Amino acid sequence: MKITHPGIPLTILGLAASCGLALAIHTGLDGSSLAATNSSKVPGGSSSPQWHWQNPLPQGNNLRGASFVDANIGTVVGEYGTIVRTTDGGNSWTVQASDTTQTLWAVSFTDANHGTAVGEGGVIVGTTDGGAHWASQASGTTLRFRGVSFTDANNGTAVGEGGIIVRTTDGGNSWLPETSGTVNTLFGVSFVDTNTGTAVGGACGIGGESTVLRTTDGGQHWVTQANPGTVCLFKVSFTDANTGTAVGDGGLILRTTDGGNTWSPQTSGTTKTLYGVSFTDTNNGTICGFELGGTGIILRTTDGGNNWVEQPNYSLPQGANAFYAVSFTDANTGTIVGDAGILLQTTNGGEQWNSQPTVTFNFLYGVSFTDANTGTAVGYQNPDAMILRTTDGGNSWVRQNSGVSDPFAGINLFGVHFVNTNIGTIVGQEGIILRTTDGGNNWDQQTSNTTDWLYAVYFSDENHGAAVGFLSGTIVRTTDGGQTWTAQSSQATGLLGVYFVDSNVGTVVGNDGVILRTTDGGQNWAAQTSGTTNQLRAVWLADANTGTVVGDQGTILRTTDGGQNWASQVSGVSEILLGVSFTDASNGTAVGQLGTIVRTTDGGQTWTREESGTNQDLYNVSFIDTNTGNAVGGFGAILRTSAQGPTPTPSPTLTPTTTPTPTPNSTPRGTPVPRRRPTPVPRPTP
Fold it and tell me: Out of 65, 332, 501, 589, which residue is the most buried by the measure of CB atoms under 10 Å away?
């Protein structure tokens, strides 16, 4: 069976995110809000001392807002309470503790020290020391804030869901509500002085409208301004009391030179969603945005918007193409942020955009380490699949050549297992099996005798291994290192996990709570009673008797008698658990949807949630000792934990790009359901 867009969304939520971005724009909801409002998550932003980013760098959460006070000093914010700071023009970045895991949608600094960020659940956090410390402020609401603008250290305004507007005159010690006169969501706000400001938003969707509000008395009165827009406006930028530009859906650009008494549309030349705008004077401005299922866009004007020119002169790895915010400090110096921690910077007005070094933004589904330094991660890439290798504990990851290719849709590799530093096997879509005996310098394709999508593979030694598939519940087995693979009868509708303790004893798991066991190398598979109908995603065995299985709705099952009895354990989470790794019968870690990580040190009698620092789905995890492990997931996420704390990573330096490079769309893997995978789009929504 040929599936031209390989991959399937993780959940119905994932499908909605892929196919219903427009609806999500209207409501203002996004996948991150689900995790952000989960009370079991540990507060503190993305500065976890346990798990740290190895890819992308400096971090991989989606970024939503940016504020630079000069060419050197700037702060960007995003999902999972992410706050990242630079004081050297982006040559190096520091992740700061934000005091929240809620998505932060906007940030405003008035000088190097004083700044405020706002976001989900009415969250407002402020700093007076350049982000060395961020403190929560009482906003008086749980409604979502989408924009914030300060004119000095004391005076600021935040806007958001349901037309909410709140204002402070004492640096955030107190926030007071103001009457906006609208129930439409306000996405952006721009003040030029203490009294004069404009907020924009709208009612999104069919029959929608653009909303523009204006105050000249510090928000005591907000007046609705007439405008020719019929779609949501997302951001606005004023350079003085009279001159401003607002941008929105469908390529809409509105301009005023009389303080909003009249707004005139400008020709953008695009129908993409325009989501960020920054003007440094009446003439010089930059807009950024994205397209449903497509690529990002950067527009530039030097004549006040009479002419807008697209700037394609940037290059990013596959997988992340949406831009959400832009901040310029002068006509030449600016920063754009977006998907998966995208950071683009220019010092010449966008003639050249430089990006932070990133190995991939595409989804990674499998990971296998054989020691603290040596590991391999696999995932999606167009056209030739993604294989990454590290020999220094993940400080650097190098791409390897898979030897397979699909120029039309790319290749998904789902599972990987190494038995030692050199010998490993990878499995993927349409029965792909790849084998290396030299640490991945060369990969040879083997004949699997199946076209099923193989999701997991495990070898008990160099010769004896098994792989399982989802679409047909396939089990294929080898006893000669993959020179020959033989299909075995499973009577399962779909299989997702496999583990063997030796050449004879193994377990596979999959759809509808199925658990199958063999004690004769797979000649016979016997069904075991799992006690659940939840989809089971991964399995780990300590020995012939002791094992753990994880799956949907936070399911964790444990056996100590070879599977005669499987006991449900309390995971403390409800998210889908996608991967599990133990180093002995007692110490194990499971990972899953929305950045979920849970850990046990007593064989699962108790599971404790750990702060991953991300909302990206984590698909797999590999521990080589009690303290040292790696997890991989969405948008190229690679996380590392060790007893010694984060391994120092070099400060990422800007990578210059001088010619445009088209970026093919990535295709994320998700819940194995045999249906065509939709074209991927930015998961976070405007």
Answer: 65
